[in-house]
Automatic annotation (TrEMBL):
SUPFAM superfamilies associated with the record: ClpS-like
Keywords, in A-Z order: Hydrolase, Protease
Transmembrane segments: none
Pfam families noted in UniProt: ClpS
High-level lineage: Bacteria, Pseudomonadati, Planctomycetota, Planctomycetia, Gemmatales
All residue ranges annotated as the Adaptor protein ClpS core domain in the record: 20-87
One BP annotation, GO: proteolysis
Keyword Protease tagged: yes
Residue ranges of the region described as Disordered: 1-22
Originating organism: Gemmata algarum
Protein name from the UniProt record: ATP-dependent Clp protease adaptor ClpS
InterPro entries associated with the record: ClpS, ClpS_core, Ribosomal_bL12_C/ClpS-like
Top-level taxon in the UniProt lineage: Bacteria
Annotated GO MF terms: peptidase activity
Length: 108
């Protein structure tokens, strides 16, 4: 058998630390061209929110002008914002010309 085995020394200053991405809010913005039903359906389709939560968020965006509909990583938040922008017009409102608007904001 050979002599004692020594492990290589590690330099604690050069160890990599896993850093988490800061979270971002997806914020739905109010307008007068979309119905509560549209908002509820969109939130269910894009975020999986149940009807009850969709109604609460629709009411919040209507009364406050904005509502945070999701908090996630920047990449996923950008995807969700783009999905809101691409969802299309509300068929219940003839003057509705397009999707709702959304923006991102840092959650921290």
């Amino acid at each position: 058998m050979s002599g004692p085995t020594t492990l290589p020394e590690t330099d604690t200053e050069t160890e990599q630390r896993t850093r988490r991405q800061p979270p971002y809010h997806v914020v739905l913005l109010n307008d007068d061209d979309h119905s509560y039903e549209y908002v509820i359906e969109m939130l269910k389709a894009l975020f999986g929110h149940p009807v009850e939560k969709g109604f609460l968020l629709a009411r919040l965006v209507d009364t406050e002008g904005r509502a945070i509909v999701c908090t996630t990583s920047l990449e996923r938040a950008e995807l969700k914002r783009d999905q809101i922008h691409a969802y299309g017009p509300d068929p219940r409102i003839p003057r509705c010309a397009g999707s709702m608007s959304a923006e991102l904001e840092a959650a921290e």
